[in-house]
Amino acid sequence: MTEDAHSDKGRPLIGKLVVIGLGLIGGSLAAGLRRRGVCRETIGIVRRAEAGRKALELGVVDRVVASLDAVAPELGQGDVIFVAVPTLAVESVLSDVRRQVSSDVTVTDGASVKGSIKAAVESVYGEMPPQVVLGHPIAGSERSGVTASNPDLYEQHRVILTPLPDTGAAHLERVRGMWQAVGAEVLDMSVEEHDQVLGATSHLPHAIAYSLVDTLAEDIGNPNIFRYAAGGFRDFTRIASSDPVMWHDIMKANRTAVLDSLDLFIDNLTRLRSAIDREDGEYLLGVFTRAKTARDHFTNILAKRAFVPAMTTGKIDYLLQPGGSVTGTIRVPGDKSVSHRSIMLGSLAEGITEVEGFLEGEDALATLQAFRDMGVVIEGPSEGRVKIHGVGLRGLKAPKKPLYIGNSGTTIRLMSGILAGQAFDSEISGDVSLAKRPMDRVANPLREMGAVVEAAEGGRPPLKIKGGQVLKGIDYQLPMASAQVKSCVLLAGLYAEGTTRVTEPAPTRDHTERMLTGFGYPVTKEGAVSELTGGGELKGTKIEVPADISSATFFMVAASIAPGSDLTLTHVGINPTRVGVINILKAMGADLTLSNERTVGGEPVADIRVRHAQLKGIHIPEDQVPLAIDEFPALFVAAACAEGETVLTGAEELRVKESDRIQAMADGLSTLGIDAKPTPDGIVIQGGSMGGGEVVTHHDHRIAMAFAIAALRASQPIRVLDATNVATSFPTFVELAKQTGISLEVIDR
Ligand code: S3P
């Protein structure tokens, strides 16, 4: 029995439950509540004696009666009537209920359409009475009748309630508790939204399944057709065995929403037909790859969001045991910055781009999906391989809904530059952490170029970008050392008249410039100035993504701080604009050796061997800050393990990353017993010894990973609260941490 099954005083939650219509839906609820002891008595109203006998024999209810008048006088407050008859029969059942049952009794239903039931209630009662709670359990099977009753049918299924302004709070909570008691997750929705969503996700597929089977059975003139039907046919048409009367009712009751969805589907099918006719392989591949991705992640589609794959279904913590060392040879996943850019530029290129070593983390996948949403055919990713069918600079199509890009600052900032140059309007939004990040830094230069960009309050996401603007090249002095802003302006420059020139106050990562060159687009980079002229063309190419030095950093620091460590990281990107971490660690006395240096696809890479060494505190040179911008959470852990004081200045940008990284790290280190004092633009850390405790990540992947490696030098366990977002940049972190010797356990929250 669940906790919800009883009221506070230990009485059953429901007095008498009367189920009108003991089929699959009604019978399963009665049986589930009865088995869990949630009601004082369960009563079924069954017209046919045979069905009543079966219900008693199967233990579905305690008592059966032939009609409502046999129980109505017994019912009062705390009792529930569940109407589970076919949709079009609900109105006449409700008339009986109104005539015979007091207004204290809670009345609810399980019909698949809510608009028509609402209308039926209003026509019977002349209003929506407080006692009536409309609901719909999203569970079922192609089986029907009382013999199909299953007391566990609703376990881990959703039930949608559609409360109205007049719905009584106590009645609503009683119905909610009833469904929770049989293991369901209860969601609230408006009547209209319910009917629209269900029309598309349930009623439309049933219409199609019935129609397909009927086509095969009736219209294709081969009597043996079903003999050859295999698994695909079985999977696709299972629901055509559902109860015809029930589905006849649903189609009529939800006519408008079903017709809307059906029209869209018929249009899509017609386009598919013509693509097959023309042998348009690209179109077919586009539909099939988009559909496969959507099917693989259909929960997001149901949530009405563009798809961003959640790699973990729920939130997770890390629990780390103190001590240990790291050893072995590993390759961390592909570089996040390069992966994002490979999708963006590959999509805008003419012809095919093949990518290897692509980071299959949530952020880069969000970029990939956004371009799919704009009509680009992208195959994969499969083991880091992606094939992009570029559409050219002018080939993107208007997305049908706002582009949802999760946690990814790089996606929104770079993509806004691309979207500013399109003929269509667009909107980009993301998760709670992204919603706090400043976007004026990209909106301002884009506006200078002639773009129309609207941000939410305080210059935060979502961003709305108006299409059809004429952009002109600008000469832009970056106010902060940000590669995202530089890249945004350069990407908008691809669409601008004339030359776009960006001057940076300090060197920042130059992957955009390098990759544009790789795509055959002329870019000049002289000192602090990057420059390109609009109106050119990108040509599809091959890209090999190096392992991400930002992910490698956690292991470089881990090996440096943990006595006995000897770890080699292979194929790490060592682009000179990213090697701040190597320079800083070396200055702190770390034992790092680079070997096998080579260039792959325009980016230098090397193998890096790291052995434990006693680190010492330093004043971090300010010129290294932009070159190590993402590496500071891990470097602060190195500083906590170093002898003496480490001082960081000139790093105010750290306050506007996925979290305020200065504050988040200072708080976490203090919890572990380290003297860490934040300053407006940096931090002062005294090396010392770490105890243990619980640290808060503020949804920030790098804060989570930094404290995971800190455990190597802690004296007590560390619990990292909410490490879910590690999947955004480093989906294999846990696996590699364990492989190298870190004692890490993942705990579901
Ligand atoms: C990135 C640039 C940096 C970095 C981010 C990725 C990029 O951001 O922190 O993780 O790919 O251009 P800023 O440009 O805001 O410094």
Secondary structure elements and pairings:
Blueprint: E1 14-20, H1 24-35, E2 39-45, H2 49-57, E3 63-65, E4 80-83, H3 90-100, E5 106-109, H4 115-125, E6 132-133, E7 135-138, E8 158-161, H5 169-181, E9 185-188, H6 191-219, H7 231-237, H8 244-253, H9 255-278, H10 281-296, H11 298-302, E10 316-320, E11 327-330, H12 336-348, E12 350-356, H13 362-373, E13 377-382, E14 385-391, E15 403-404, H14 409-420, E16 426-429, H15 440-448, E17 452-456, E18 460-466, E19 475-477, H16 483-493, E20 499-503, H17 511-518, E21 524-526, E22 529-533, E23 542-544, H18 549-561, E24 566-573, H19 580-587, E25 591-600, E26 603-611, H20 632-641, E27 645-648, H21 661-671, E28 675-679, E29 682-686, E30 693-696, H22 701-710, E31 718-721, H23 733-740, E32 744-748
Parallel strand pairs: 1-2, 1-4, 2-3, 4-5, 5-6, 8-9, 11-24, 12-23, 15-16, 19-20, 30-31
Antiparallel strand pairs: 7-8, 10-31, 10-32, 12-14, 13-14, 16-18, 17-18, 20-22, 21-22, 24-26, 25-26, 27-29, 28-29
The structure holds shikimate-3-phosphate (S3P).
Q: What can you see in these coordinates?
A:
The chain is built from 23 helices and 32 strands. By secondary structure, the protein is of the alpha/beta class. The chain folds into four domains: 187 residues, Rossmann fold (3-Layer(aba) Sandwich); 83 residues, 6-phosphogluconate dehydrogenase C-terminal fold; 219 residues, Enolpyruvate transferase domain (UDP-n-acetylglucosamine1-carboxyvinyl-transferase, Chain), CATH 3.65.10; 193 residues, UDP-n-acetylglucosamine1-carboxyvinyl-transferase, Chain (Alpha-beta prism). Helix 20 packs parallel to helix 22. The site of shikimate-3-phosphate has 10 residues, from helix 16.
